[in-house]
Amino acid sequence: MSAIIILNYYNDTMIKRYLENYKNFPREIWVITIISFINRAGTMVVPFLSKYMKESLGFSYAQVGWVMVCFGVGSLVGTFVSGKLADKYSAYKVMVFSLFTSGLIFIGLQFVSSFEVLCFSIFLLTSIADMFRPAMMITINNYVTKKNRIKALALVRSATNVGFVFGPLLGGLLISIWNYNVLFIVDGLSCVISILIFAYLVTEKQVLYKLKFQHLEVDKLAPLKDKSFLIHWVITMITAVLFFQVFTVLPIYHKEQFGLSEFQSGLLLSFYGVLLLLFELPVVSFVENRKYKKTLIILVGLACIGFSYLLLALINMPIVLIVSTFFMGLGSMLTFSFASNFVSGRSFKNQEGLFMSMFQMSYGFAHVFSAKTGLTIVDLYGFKANWLFNFGLAMVGVLLSFYLYKEVKNNLIKTKEDIVNSIFKAS
Q1: Which residue segment(s) compose the domain that 161 sits in?
Q2: Do residues 29 and 137 touch, judged by C-beta distance below 8 A?
Q3: What whole-number distance in Å separates Cα of residue 50 and Cα of residue 249?
Q4: Distance between CA 239 and CA 111 in Å, rounded?
Q5: What is the Cα–Cα distance from 364 to 293, expressed in whole angstroms?
Q6: Does a structural domain hold residue 345?
Q7: Which helix (H) or strand (E) holds 60?
Q8: What is the 8-class DSSP label of residue 52?
Q9: CA distance 338 to 150
Q10: CA quadruple 250, 252, 253, 254: dihedral positive or negative?
């Protein structure tokens, strides 16, 4: 009895401490957190899209790969346009347009069955849907201080993770009870409902007077001239290439190698969501409090992701799926949680949208290469070859992360030396 009382006290204390970190966040951040949960909980199509095309539409590995290429190209277009539209109009308007319109397209996808039309439809969908994330991140930056930026992003990611616990599980259950078409309806409605809640509860900030800076030359290629930004961009793309196969190649592997049903695949993906829900915020807080270098944390995360694929290549037993998912979850906590903040810290004033949209394009390129590369390797050489390839790619990311750590460190030393030299010259 006393043990139960102690446990309850510990849980209450932990929850209070957890909420204490976020009690001063503005209402807008909490609304974004809520709609992120609703939207992610309703995201059921993407985890099962490859299986849907393979099993229900009868597409070949090559056709599934090409559809996912269109998915990636659309993502590139969406993320590139998002920053420009956010800078020209507002991140708020981009968020509303993106999520509402993509919800309607999701609902219409259930009526598409031909390869060519599906390629175009998926391209159109991601072109619009992927405008949302860069705009959302800009909006978050507008409501929190630089000090609280990582915590705000982690809070939204936690809400996303809670939704992710339910999404694949409910998706697999709905497929088992009804069919794939129900997923498109639920996914679309979750997009529409969540953004309507956002538009109702959050009023767009009106700028009373917007300063004109036409006399100042804006360098539209500034991100491309930042060496550290470009290295980080490649590292993030590699991370995303590896991560996206969790939703494209792995569900097919579950079925063909171990005979798992959609519901069982959904359980595995939900386990991944539970890991992020329970451990991401504590891990982020721990790293922030210890002042560890973010580039080295990303390095460790990539090593964990690589190890998860190495396990799949070496062990051919169902238990490996759980262990691999654990290391994949740990790796994603240590990479994605800090990747965006690195970019925010290097963005120039009034060019946040440009930097963030170019950064988010790394995910679009990852979509282009991830599924197509993975499924091509599987088709030609088998799943084991693909897992070994992914492990090697992760090691490339590890080496680049270490190089980035040295690059940032050397730049910081040089900047300090330049400041000291300029002071002595001035005196």
Answers
A1: 25-203+223-426
A2: no
A3: 8
A4: 33
A5: 27
A6: yes
A7: none
A8: I
A9: 7
A10: positive
pTM as predicted: 0.75
Structure-block tokens of residue 384: 């084991």
Torsion-angle region of residue 95: left (phi > 0), alpha (psi -120 to 50) or beta? alpha
State the Cα–Cα distance between residues 149 and 423, nearest whole angstrom: 32
Number of compact structural domains in the chain:
1
Of 96, 123, 352, 116, the closest CA to residue 200 belongs to 96
In a domain, 358, yes or no: yes
CATH number, position 338: 1.20.1250.20
**CA nearest neighbour of 197 among 52, 341, 99:** 99
Burial level of 171, CB count in 10 A (0-12/13-18/19+)? buried
Separation of alpha carbons 361 and 309, rounded Å: 24
Secondary-structure breakdown of the chain: helix, strand, coil percentages, each rounded to the nearest 5? 85, 0, 15
According to DSSP, residue 316 is labeled -
Q: Are 254 and 260 in contact (CB under 8 A)?
A: yes
Dist. CA 362–CA 241, nearest whole Å: 9
Q: Is residue 350 a contact partner of residue 79, using CB atoms and an 8 Å limit? A: no
Q: For residue 283, how many other CB atoms are within 10 A of its CB?
A: 18
pLDDT, averaged per 10 consecutive residues of the chain (427 residues), comes to: 47 56 75 82 74 86 88 85 81 90 91 92 90 83 75 78 75 81 87 89 65 52 78 94 90 88 83 80 78 87 96 93 93 85 67 73 85 91 96 96 88 66 60
Q: Could you tell me if residue 140 is inside a domain?
A: yes
Distance in angstroms (rounded) separating the CA atoms of residues 193 and 100 = 8
Q: Which two tokens stand for residue 386?
A: 């693909």
- Quote the CA–CA distance of 263 and 194 in Å, as a whole number: 25
Could you tell me the two tokens for 102?
């993509």
